[in-house]
Amino acid sequence: MAESDFQGTIRRLTSESEPWWPDPVLPPAGTPNVVVILLDDTGFGHLGCFGGLVDTPNFDRLAARGLRYSNFHTTALCSPTRACLLTGRNHHSVGMRALSNFDTGFPNMRGRIAASAGTLAEVLHEEGFATFAVGKWHLTPMREASAAGPFTDWPLQKGFDRFYGFMQGETDQFHPELSEDNRPTPVPRTPEEGYHVSEDLVDQAIGMVRTKASLVPERPFFLYLAFGATHAPHQAPDAYLEKWRGRFDEGWDVARQRVYENQLAMGTIPPGTDLAPRNPGVEAWDDLSADEQALACRLQEAFAAMLDHTDAQLGRLLDELDALGLAEDTVVVALSDNGASQEGRATGILDTFRHFNGVDQPVDEAVARLDEIGTRTSNTNYPWGWAQVGNSPGKRYKQNTHSGGVRDPLIISWPGGIDPAANGQVRTQFPHVVDLAPTLLELLGVAAPDAINGIAQQPIEGTSLAYTLDPSADDAAAVPSRKGRQYFEMQGHRGIWADGWKAVAFHQYGTELDDDVWELYHLDEDFSECHDLAEAEPERLTAMVDLFWEEADRYGVLPIMDRAGNLSGAAGGGLF
């Protein structure tokens, strides 16, 4: 505190002086806690409460005492989505166009969040919140993620009091590379002793919340819990792997139809929505060989086991909030960072780096190792066919700006702040991940500061969703989206949404950007992007494409990656 802020009196002797103590910085009594649960590479159709086939009773439990958002969108990739989530600004605006592993030499891709875009943790810390980051970070340039630092962009320097997790984009779930605060830390147990990183992360999160609740209960907390699941490698304890044996033997065509029908029945997709056709490179299940089917089933079983196991860890955290009497006064936001991943290639892989090196997995070699899949000796990802099931009812995948890459599950639960009459409802307004930070700030009664650490702050670019928490907001026609437009750009794939319409272009790597073909969809009537109206409405398409370039200029999207090499091959997925 500066001397000028002192409100006592200072004379030569203490007996002649008057001491003064500032009040502690705390938000008003009754301010809720915030918990953000972030999944990785989990598609719109994966969670049970969004029609998925995997058991997720605890995500379903959150949805039953909160709201599901069926039209929520992300950036299509992990680091950019995390940057938007934590800052309330678009990813290009803050220097995170792609993964934090890269610095392209342009302002939109520095591999770090700009200091002019303070995080939720920085804002809330100054308001008196305890702030905890647990799990995957992936917002620091990888050259700075070692024990030598510098630590400028580590969680503790971005507003968090505590950090426990891993810095990279993925990690082995049984043998993770862990950091605690600003230093590497050893894995506390061996796999033989029952170790799995998802369990460890929740143990740490519970410990942080318990300590705060017992010592400084007057301080609300912000917990950012970012699981490694369900990013590859898909790994789970043996009991979970065994549970899912044989559960997907009917194949991905039957499974996708079942998810689609579930979604229609529960209202997470509008009536009349079509199921998108198979993505390029996805074969009909019945056309696969017996070995291809056996491998694909085992890989999907490992994914399901991992998601099931992660849901159980969420349940432990929710139970702890209940036991501490904190659930009523805690806003829980659960989401995924992008759609299901195409990085398992056409037939699946047993080594995730095969994808990044553009090398397919020989099926006969993989079938000889079926029993290793999902265990601590594996490093697997499932094939495109199962990824499209997770992105039902849409097309394409993570990294693409079609719905399979950018439409994701979102749940907001707040027992003490959402009218019970709204519990279990589905919201159809259009939000983007950039809207979550301003939503939370509004719910908490906190204004975004003009400066943080003396650095002037960029304007918040998201639109608060707080208006959707009212039970009457279930009628989207009566309560329209307050967001007017949202651009998308990822590795040359582009899109623009405005007033219920979407223009989108798939970019084939190694080709000119101007050669891309723009498609046009009326999303209010075509949720799954099945009916291209580009030829029928050329003037509207032209206006939408012009709008994309306006937004690109406004938010620092330029320059766009155009002819960069792509090692991943047919799916057009890029290097990430």
Please tag this protein with its features.
576 residues, alpha/beta, ten-stranded mixed β-sheet, globular, 13 helices, 13% strand, 25% helix, disordered C terminus, four-stranded antiparallel β-sheet
Task: Describe the protein in words.
A 10-stranded mixed β-sheet has the order 6-5-4-3-7-1-8-9-2-10, sandwiched between helices. The protein has 13 helices and 16 strands. Helix content is 25%, strand content 13%. A hairpin with a 2-residue loop joins strand 5 (178-180) and strand 6. The longest helix is centred in the middle third of the chain and has 34 residues, at 290-323. The protein is globular.
Mean pLDDT: 95
Query: Reading side by side through the largest sheet, how are the strands ordered?
Result: 6-5-4-3-7-1-8-9-2-10
Q: Quick one: biggest sheet? A: 10 strands, mixed
Helix content: 25-40%
Record field, number of beta strands: 16
Which residues sit in consecutive blocks of at least 5 with pLDDT less than 50? 565-576
Cα separation of the termini: 45 Å
Radius of gyration: 24 Å
Main structural class: alpha/beta
Order of helices and strands: EHEHHEEEEHEHHHEHHHHEEHEEEEEEH
Number of helices: 13
Global outline: globular
In quaternary terms, these chains amount to single chain
At a glance:
The protein has 576 residues and is an alpha/beta fold.
